[in-house]
Amino acid sequence: QVLSLPIVVIVHGNQDNNAKATVLWDNAFSEIDRVPFVVAERVPWEKMCDTLNLKFMAEVQTTKGLLKEHYFFLAQKIFNDHSASLEDFQNRSVSWAQFNKEILPGRGFTFWQWFDGVLDLTKRCLKSYWSDRLIIGFISKQYVCKLLSTEPDGTFLLRFSDSEIGGVTIAHVIRGKDGSSQVENIQPFSAKDLSIRSLGDRIRDLGQLRNLYPNTPKDQAFGSHYNSEWVGAE
C-alpha cells in the first residue's frame, strides 16, 4: 500500500471551493511522515504567503507573483486587523478557520472563497494585465483613497472588489473646480462582464479615466490591450 496525494470526494459543484481549500491546506502544510489525515490547525503567516503566491502564479500561469504590499493587504483581511504593521504580521500564525471557515466581517464568504474568486477572474480575463503589472489588485478601498486623493483629475487604478467574489473595480479621482477631490469606485466587473467587453476596451470607453496611477497615460499603459474595432456595412 502507498499513501496517495490528498483527495476530496464531492457530490455537487457547490462543494468544489471547499474541496480545493482542503487539498491546498493539506498539500502545503502536512508533514511527509505524518499520521494520515493529520494536518496542522495553525501555520505561520509567512508559510501561508508562500503558498498563496505559488498557487496564484501556477493557477494564473504568470511569472509575476505577489508583492510585499499585497501580503500586507491579505494579512489585514484574513486577521481583520488594520492597526498592525507588516512586521507584526510576520510573527503571527493563521488557522484553518480563518482561512476557510470564518465569514469575513460584513461579507457572506470566507477568505479562501474570496481569494479563489480572484484567482479564477485573473486566470480567465486578466492574466495579461496582471503580468504587465497594470493591476494593483490587492489593495484596500481606504488605502486607494489615500493614494488617489492628492493626484490629478482622472488618475485611476485597478483593485479586486472586497464586496463581490471575482470582481475587479476601477477607482478614480474626480477633482472639483474648487480643488476638492473625490475618489469613486466603478461597479465591479465580473468574468461574465469582461467576456462581453474586455477590460482594456472598457477603460478606453471611459473618458473620465486619464492616467494610470501614478502618472502613466492610459493609452500608453493599456494601448496594447485595446481591440482594434471596425464597423461593418450597415
TrEMBL record:
Entry's Gene Ontology BP terms: cell surface receptor signaling pathway
Primary location group: cytoplasm
GO cellular component assignments: cytoplasm; nucleus
Pfam families named among the record's database cross-references: SH2, STAT_linker
UniProt keywords, alphabetically: Activator, Cytoplasm, DNA-binding, Nucleus, Phosphoprotein, SH2 domain, Transcription, Transcription regulation
UniProt KW Iron keyword: no
Origin: domain of life: Eukaryota
Classification via PANTHER family: SIGNAL TRANSDUCER AND ACTIVATOR OF TRANSCRIPTION (PTHR11801)
Family under the similarity heading: Belongs to the transcription factor STAT family.
Protein name (record): STAT6 protein
Species annotation: Cochlearius cochlearius (Boat-billed heron)
